[in-house]
Amino acid sequence: MEIWLGNMSRPSLELPAIEPSQNVQAAKKLETQLNALDIQLLKKAQELSEHRTEDDEDLDPEDAMIKDPAIVAMDVAAQIAYLRKLKFQYLEQNAKDKYVKSIVSDIDDAPIITVEQNNELSAINEEKKAKLKVAKQKLEETQKNIRLLAPLVEQDYHQVKQATDRAALLSQKIIDARTRLMLLRHTHPHPRLTIPLADQKLADQVVEMQTLSDQVQSVKQKAKADKARVKAGALVVENLRIEASEAQKAVKNAQLDEEDSRIVPLYEWFTASLSLQRSIHNLEDLHSETENELRLTYKISSSPPHHITITLIFQSDTKKLAAAEVSGLDELGIEVGDVVDAHIQVNDVHGLVAAILAHARAAAGT
């Protein structure tokens, strides 16, 4: 099958000069001439759309390219464009023939154009000009409105875009909030805490906080009283310590014999004073582990009674308080680490013991 569309020689169509009354006959004659060319595009459409067979593999690449439907479509488009140009040339030539005939022909054969026709054509032209002027004014007004409304439309567009973005963001937040709410509902099943129960719980917490605040005030007042009492007892202990040291010095200076009758009363007085001091501070045991370590055991009067052991460690050279260890407070559930550190920094032994005992008595409720 051979189709020579690309290299097909374009036939020359010689169109005779025709009159306006013969347009229909000229169109039919042109159709007859086009049918006589035997282009066969419609006849070969089915064959062009078919796939290649095994016999087509032996064809040359150029022949195969000619049978490609895409190339055939391009050639058809070129032929259509050529026919359109040919039609335009025909119309242009026809108009030229009419114009020449109207000029060179005799006055009798020329079409008669009267003044009325000219006036009618002039009126039609004026009407068209008026319509054109109105259309131009409308176009100018429309362009002006466009120039005025374009910034407003752009501003509205940006606002709508921002609103759209915000709506999308809020939608995503709503989805996230619903997801968290579903997770919370799954994590905390019924019965959940409602608003009335929350208000009631808040009121109970307020009452409890007020009660605890009153207890704290009473404990502070009791701690102040205990601190004053401990300070007074410390002064008594210090006086007794001074008296004991003076008594020891007097015993050494006098070098009394073992049978001296003053030793027994002095010993009894010292023992009674020591018992009195222990009874005031509830000191049950007092002994030195080493030269710079003193261990004090106090009894807290409660139900059941608690025992607190305070170990004081002094520096060997300066005799200042270096460290302190407290045992027995775990049962009461209190922590006095900050109090111990504060008193160690100022080297306040009496204050340290008094503060620890005050915390212990407050925790035991005595």
Task: Give a topology summary.
Elements (H helix, E strand, L loop, with lengths): L22 H14 L8 H5 L11 H6 L2 H36 L10 H73 L7 H60 L8 H19 L1 E8 L2 E8 L5 E9 L6 E7 L9 H10 L2 H16 L2
Helix pairs in contact: 6-7, 6-9, 8-9
Task: Describe what this molecule looks like in 3D.
The chain has helices at 23-36, 45-49, 61-66, 69-104, 115-187, 195-254, 263-281, 337-346, 349-364, and strands spanning 283-290, 293-300, 306-314, 321-327. It has 366 residues and is an alpha+beta fold. It starts with 22 loop residues before the first helix and ends with a helix. 65% of the residues lie in helices and 9% in strands. It has a four-stranded antiparallel β-sheet with strand order 1-2-3-4. The chain is built from nine helices and four strands, in the order αααααααββββαα. Residues 118-145 form a coiled coil. One of its GO terms (biological process) is protein localization to kinetochore. InterPro entries: Sos7, Sos7_CC.
- Strand count: 4
Q: Can you tell me the residue ranges where pLDDT is under 50 for at least 5 consecutive residues?
A: 1-20
Backbone CA Rg: 62 Å
Distance between the termini: 123 Å
Mean pLDDT: 77
Helix count from the secondary structure assignment: 9
Main sheet summary: 4 strands, antiparallel
- Assess the beta-strand content as a share of residues: 5-15%
Broad structural category: alpha+beta
Overall form: rod-shaped
The helix content, as a percent range, equals 55-70%
Strand order in space, largest sheet: 1-2-3-4
GO cellular component, one term: kinetochore
Keywords: Coiled coil
Protein name: Kinetochore protein Sos7 coiled-coil domain-containing protein
Pfam family, one: Sos7
